[in-house]
Amino acid sequence: MVLHRNLGPLDTTAIGLGEMPLTIENNLGEAKGIETIHAALDAGCRHIDTAWSYYCSGGEEQTGEKLVRKAMASWDGPKDEVTIATKVGHFRNFAEDGTTPTWGVNGQPEHLVEAGKQSALALGVDTIDLLYLHRPDPNVPYNESVEAIKQLLDEGVAKLAGISNASVEQIDIARKILGDKLVAVQNQFSPTYQSTRDTLDYCEKLGLPFVCWSPLGGYRKAKDETKYDPFREVGQAHGVSHQQVVLAWELSLGRHVFVIPGAHRPETILDSLKAGDLKLSAEELAKLNA
Ligand SMILES: NC(=O)c1ccc[n+]([C@@H]2O[C@H](COP(=O)([O-])OP(=O)(O)OC[C@H]3O[C@@H](n4cnc5c(N)ncnc54)[C@H](OP(=O)(O)O)[C@@H]3O)[C@@H](O)[C@H]2O)c1
Question: From atom 1 of ligand 1, which residue's Cα is the shortest distance away?
Fold first, then answer.
């Protein structure tokens, strides 16, 4: 069974499927996307992370949410056990060269409210399980963007709220506005990206779930592979992939930690879902924490 943890009042899996690679640039097509989501669900994954903005720059919007809807509709397992999280506040664009895909940010309250309603429609639900503010918009006071998420909760568009790419100060602002409806902080965190450790630790103090995005270092960016050497050594000793060791290490950082590894295909998410079973010794954890 995949490791379960509580995300606020939701009982879900600590390892979720990060949907992004299935619908942004270099995805392997809809059929492979649905196969990947079904494989994850069949293996016991009960947490899918998508976003309004998980589509290819210049292409049809919200294809990530639409893919999740299709996959859920054609899955014959217990749908009510699955937590589906989405996010608003980002959109896709191109750089000035007209060809390089980029991520634009829009934290204007009117846009967020409209996007939240569009997310519910694309997911085919009356109420979104968990709706994140995707990223602070430097041109909009943070509290105004968070108030828009609160409006979506009040209107019943979303049940619970999260914030993403947030600092300690922004976590405090969001807590004041959202109260106990704020159930998750989703920040980048991996062996090659630990500058958000202050927020991971702060969330532990608050008893607030912390969701690591790009928990394996991300597939789009070049990373310092030497940082993964200790994880490879531990993986070899256990006869498992170093990715499982990375995820198990992250989950060891507190019972409030969740991971949402991305995948283009069933094989990788099926391997990642086993990370909760991996028992790392105190000696191994000391080596990985060094
Ligand atoms: N909140 C935000 O601002 C934000 C930003 C970025 C991402 N995210 C979320 O975080 C999720 C994960 O991030 P990510 O997809 O960028 O990166 P990631 O999870 O760090 O890495 C994904 C890559 O790792 C590979 N992989 C996964 N599990 C593996 C395994 N067990 N063995 C070998 N390879 C494995 C995948 O391979 P294959 O490609 O071969 O399947 C994929 O290339 C996204 O899907 C998205 O939901 C959120």
Answer: 164
